[in-house]
Design goal:
Length: about 230
């Protein structure tokens, strides 16, 4: 089974992915994870690092399809590794996948122009590059303001020396990304989607282990039904 974890920067995808692998193994499920982009492992991943450092221009200066191809190319280079993991393990959990490309690049366009881009990315990644669709996609729902505060706590990253990369530093961008994610989740592109709240009604963050337990329950049910 292939499960993708999606959400805006700072939503907690990496933490959730690690906790899910731990829960799966404790439950006797052979699980492994893979994170995209693979900044240090692919040629396109290194180009993504340059893009996020502003080497190709400001966010509004980089052609949207050019940026989308960088992310698609990273996964195309990683396809053999992803297929190997799927063949060798019962469960593969991805920290970001193709929906990230759709959400982050779709958010750069006016609402009326987004659908054409989403269809184009779908065609490139799934049809042309023949990447496997996820069986399940979990969207972590974290408020843009909360996620922005959490970004300040992120440790140093290999692809940038800046506190915030090109996406994270653009005011209002993450809110638009969240809106596209919401649209994607409501239209169930390529596999089933479900949403998981990371905050209570008062806006307080839920414990990571509580979030992981809820998501793992959904995955475990799907694994059981699929067996």
């Amino acid at each position: 089974m292939l499960v993708a974890i999606e959400g805006i920067d700072g939503a907690g995808k990496g933490t959730l992915t690690r906790n899910l692998v731990r829960l799966a193994k404790a439950d006797g499920v052979d699980a492994v994870s893979l994170a995209f982009p693979r900044y240090d492992d692919t040629r396109f991943g290194k180009l993504i690092g340059q893009y996020l450092n502003g080497r190709f221009g400001r966010l509004d200066e980089v052609p949207v399809r050019f940026a989308a191809l960088l992310y698609a190319g990273d996964r195309h280079e990683s396809r053999a590794e992803l297929l190997r993991l799927l063949a060798a393990h019962e469960l593969v959990i991805l920290d970001r996948y193709i929906a990230s490309n759709m959400a982050y690049n779709g958010a750069k366009l006016p609402e009326g122009e987004r659908e054409a881009l989403l269809n184009w990315i779908d065609e490139v990644e799934y049809e042309l590059f023949e990447l496997p669709p996820p069986d399940l996609t979990c969207l972590l729902e974290t408020g843009a303001e909360t996620a922005d505060r959490l970004l300040a706590r992120k440790p140093a990253r290999s692809y940038t020396s800046n506190q915030r990369d090109l996406h994270e530093s653009e005011h209002g961008y993450m809110k638009r990304v969240a809106e596209v994610y919401q649209y994607l989740s409501e239209n169930d592109r390529r596999g089933a989607w479900f949403r998981c709240r990371t905050q209570n009604a008062d806006g307080k963050l839920l414990p990571p282990k509580e979030i992981a337990a809820e998501v793992w329950h959904r995955i475990r049910v799907s694994l059981t039904l699929g067996s």
